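Reply to dn_fold:

You asked what the input looked like. This is it:
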Amino acid sequence: MKTLIILTEEVPNIDEIICMLSVANFPVQNDMILQADITDNTFHGKWIIQTEQYIINIHLFKGKTSSVDYLLFDKPFEEIKYGDASQALVALESTKTNDSNSGSRNTSVYQRITKFTTFMRMYPNSNTKFVMFWTNTNWKTTITQTAMFGFKMMITLGIQLYYSFDDQQNINLQTKYNITKFDTTDELLSYKNSMKHKEGNTTIRIVQTLAGFHITIKLDKGDGNHAGKISHDPNVGFLSALLNSIQILETNTSSSPLKFYIEKHGVKQNYFDKKPSSKLWHSIHGIDIEFENCEIKERPQLPTKYFTIEKEMTEKLATIICDLTSYMRTIFSNHGGCALTDIKGPENELHKVGQKMHRPDIVFENKETQEILIVEGKIEKDIHKGVLQLEDTYINDFIVLLKKIYPSHKICKGLCITIKNIDDMASYKDLMYPVKFAIDTNGKFIDLR
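and this is what came back:
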């Protein structure tokens, strides 16, 4: 029986896994079950899917750069565990945001492209298939120019576009909207420069001269700690996609080296003086770029590894296991480095959580007792921080929202802790909030819910 390996930075999701398998032409069963590798209350650091044709072992990884959410390998684990992603069959990035409003439009399309262009820069000779995937996201009959332009650049870069919604799997966005790639640089520039612009914004414009490409684009957020720094992630993604797309289109038509001049960018010289390592640099590595009125002191080199395997029992792993082993219904999760979920209401309707709202790691509902359990996860040395983060004064806005959604439920709180030895649990019996789940560095856990 064949063994496949999936590496992920996210809580493993069956929809995303099915999409990767389909793109790689592996047979897919509708009844595939994702299970944590647990025996005798001990988690062995991975998840397993078993079908009639193959076994999939799923491990968590930590990216060494701006990395995709999933990598699929048809290789022994021993051959890939050292951080080389070049032999991946599929690289998939996932999101839940879509084109429905201006607040999420740039995030759902442009911001994600950096993940792929970084991979391409690190492994220019790789045969990996790239997939942008929208999880349980409804795309309307028509889309905006903003999304269409981003999609056309994705197709130009060789990125496939899929989404799932309700019980529908692997719906092809390219087919749905009849999206075609750009065939020439002139076509790309004409499309972008003819798009309507929003009043009050710095309009992105591209002009080609004999000297090179002049691009007007704001790359800082313009306020607070982000002012003067490369910090506008959607525009960083746009710029990365643009430069890489133009380079692909110009490869067979231009013999002279390409040069890009970035203007009205909002970045200050003192930012470059500190020799920062922005995700932009890895995604455009090797591209000749200059910033108006600024001198780039140092261009960061590509990392030698794409990822490291999560070997330690981290807070992230602990909260995921706490989540997946619960007999209660999970209505919210905020696992470290994973996609933030909405709050599920009594009828599974979704309620948005404010971007700046303080939030816990997991929230469960016990329907029988009509209780809501709020859980904060912490490693041993930070347990006191977890206690403080469960205080009403810290998560008050989140609790107010919960009470609106579940007005008849009682709110309870507890901790999910990662400790050195599970036999030392007695040391934590007198905390202000009770330990509901504990796991040690060997994966041995106790569920006290």
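The chain has a mean pLDDT of 89.
Hope that clears it up.
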